[in-house]
Structure formats: C-alpha cells, structure tokens
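Dear support,

Our group has been running a series of protein-ligand predictions, and this particular one with arginine is the one our PI (initials K.S.) wants archived with full inputs and outputs. We had some confusion internally about which version of the output was final, so please treat the block below as the authoritative record. The input we submitted was:
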Amino acid sequence: KKSEAWSARFSEPVSDLVKRYTASVFFDNRMASVDIQGSLAHAEMLSAQNIITTQDYADIQRGMAQIQGEIESGKFEWLLDLEDVHLNIEKRLTELVGDAGKRLHTGRSRNDQVATDIRLYMRNAIDNIIELLRGLRAALIDLAEKNAETILPGFTHMQVAQPITFGHHILAYVEMFGRDTERMQDCRKRVNRLPLGAAALAGTTFPIDRERVARTLGFDEVCYNSLDAVSDRDFAIEFCAAAALIMTHISRMSEELVIWMSPRVGFIDIADRFCTGSSIMPQKKNPDVPELARGKTGRVNGHLIALLTLMKGQPLAYNKDNQEDKEPLFDTVDTIIDTLRIFADMATGISVKPDAMRAAALQGYATATDLADYLVKKGLPFRDAHEAVAHAVKTCVEKGCDLSDMSLAELQTYSALIGEDIFEVLTLEGSVAARDHIGGTAPNQVRAAIIRARKNLAF
Ligand code: ARG
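Confirmed final output from the archive:
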C-alpha cells in the first residue's frame, strides 16, 4: 500500500530523489503549532456548520492535543515520505483518532492551509520583531541620554563637517528603527487576513463560515478572492522588504561602530563579550558582532530578491514554486530576531570615549560654518561670508593651526566685522548649543528628542 495522500491515482511510486526534492517537512515543520491552530479553527467551524459531528470535532481536539505534546517533547516522528508538515500531522491524527482525522480536510486544501499557516507564523514573528525593535530603541535612547552633551565631529563625505552631540547621532538610528517599526506594523495589517476557505483555488461546495474561522484565529478579515488567497505571497515579500531595511539600518550602524572602535579613531569601546580575538595576533580585539551583522544584511537583502523572483513568473493560482517561499522567509525571521536581540544588548556594552571624540572635533575646522554664520548675522551676505572664512581656513591650513588659534587682529584681516565675541562662537560647545531648533544637535534639543522618542516607544 502506497503512503502518499494522493497516491491512488498513480501507478508507480515517486523515486527517492524526487521525494527528497519535493519534500518540505524538514523546514516547514516549524509551522507545526500554527498548523494545528488553523486545523482546530477549521474543525470547530465544520462542526458548528454540521459538516462534521461534534464528536468528530472532540476527537480532532483530543488528537491534536496529543500531537502538540509529542512535537513539544521531541517524540513526534517527522517522515520524509509524508512530504510536508500538513500531511505529517494529518496522518498522525488519523492514527490517533481514526475517521474524524480523515474528515478534517473536508472543504480545505493544502493550498489554503499553507497560506494560512504562513500568515499565522508571520504574525507571531512580526509581533516579536516589533517588541525587539522597541527594546533596541529603548537601549539606544538610554545611550543617547548619557551623551546629550558629548561632542564629536559630524562627517559628510567622511570629512569633518560640523561638531555634533553623540546623543544626537545615536537618536538618528532611533528614528530609523522607529520607521522600521511602523513598516512592520503596516505589513501586519496585510498579513492578518484569512485564506482558509479558498480551498485549492475556487472555494468549496460545503456551507463553510469563513468569517467564523477568521474570528477564531484573530484575523482582521478574510481574503476576498480565492485565487488570490492561495497564490500570492506579496505579504511575505513586503515583510522581507521591511526586514531588508531593518538590516540596512543595522548595517550602517555596524559600519560606524567598527570605524569608531578602530584604534585610529578610538571613539568607543565595545564590551569584550561582543568581540573576539585573533589566533595569531595577541593584541587583537575585533568587533565581530557588528561585522557579522553587516555581513548578514547581504543574505536578508538576497532573500527579498529571491521571493520577488519566485513570484514574478507564476500564473494564477497556486504553483509548487511557492513551497520555496519558506526557507528565505524563515531565515529572514531568524536573522532579524537574533540581530535585534544582540544589538539591544550590545548597545548597553558601548563605552564612549569623550576625550577622543572632542580631540577629533577640534581638528578639521569644524566650526568654520559658525564663523560664516556669525558674519551673516553682522550683515554680510552668506556667499561673501563663506569666501572670507575660506580664506581664513586656507591660512590656518598653511600654518597648521585652528581658527580659534588666530588673534583677533589676524581674524579681522578677513573681515572687519569680526569682534571679541567670536571666540565663544568658535568653541565646540557654542557651536552645538547654537543649533537649537527641532531636529538640531543642541543638547537642549537632544533632551527634548529623548522625551519624544520615549513617548513613541508606547506605540
Ligand atoms: N508544502 C506545500 C507548500 O509549501 C503545501 C501546499 C502543497 N499543495 C500542493 N497542491 N502540492 O506550498
């Protein structure tokens, strides 16, 4: 007797190679719990609609409870011969409860079943990711708060641009991860719709109640077209796009952490538990975690492209191609969850070296713009002010000194408008404090931004 659920139509068994090629059980069995959850909701509806008896439903509940226990304790035997998670569980159910198990699949197909499972699985994953993003944002806000007044050079083109506060710099990432959270919340709305009832592609002849199943499973609504319900995976693609952006933000931050920890820069140190040494060079302490996160961004971006490519050539409705959605999706979820968890922890292990930051900010004429702005406030048009300061900087570069090292008389050779009060303007503290408006780098504004960011954590 052949074992496949569909084998009665076939005159020879599939080869072992084909079995292995087509089976998904060893990666889709992570959906076992949600598969059982979906089956129970379906069975409850079938019995409420008198399509199966209440006794059948009770038997199915009893069998599924046992199966859940077997899976959790590692006793459940997953069989390649049974292809996927759905057929493995259904077969075991029938072993345990007989005909009731065979009635479970009434009015249902694996096509709408698997689409439902993925959505339930993703909903949990998204909730988890939103929580982890909240944890990372909270940890970064704490780091920003401790450094609301810590000054370092801000860069454009990797060249010293203007002094900024480290708190302000870190809050830039809090903004990014805040938008990532919004994207996940938005994606969840389109994930949270019920495909069950679409059956294979056209719906079913049984008097099902899809809205009842949607309510039981906590879906916001049903999918309104059966062909669409079983065949599209746009919600998974959208999730991978949002995930790719999370990793892109993580990767940019990683790049900065690596640069900041380089002894040539020395702005921060990362706690030993996030670093590793070298097997040959005794002095080494390498920022492996940010480097790996930067590397893992490549695979998450790759999964997005994999899913887009998987979908683009498929005619309606379901095609087996869709079984290939799972590994990229699951790996994306695993990578994002591990990365966010480790980054929230690592944020508490970053120690800041304010002296090194300050010394770097004092090099590179970071306050040149402040001098130009000063002249504008004294009545000079901005373009003329820019030119006057450029001449002053040129002289400083030649002499190897800073703008504030020049005497008042020297400075006045570039513009007669310069007065005694210029030296305050040229300080790092004066420079950051002057950028005192919403979104600016002044310590005042950083503190206001921290209050705003903490409020946003609630949403
Ligand atoms: N394992 C399959 C998947 O992941 C389940 C649906 C299979 N349906 C089918 N008619 N072969 O997509």
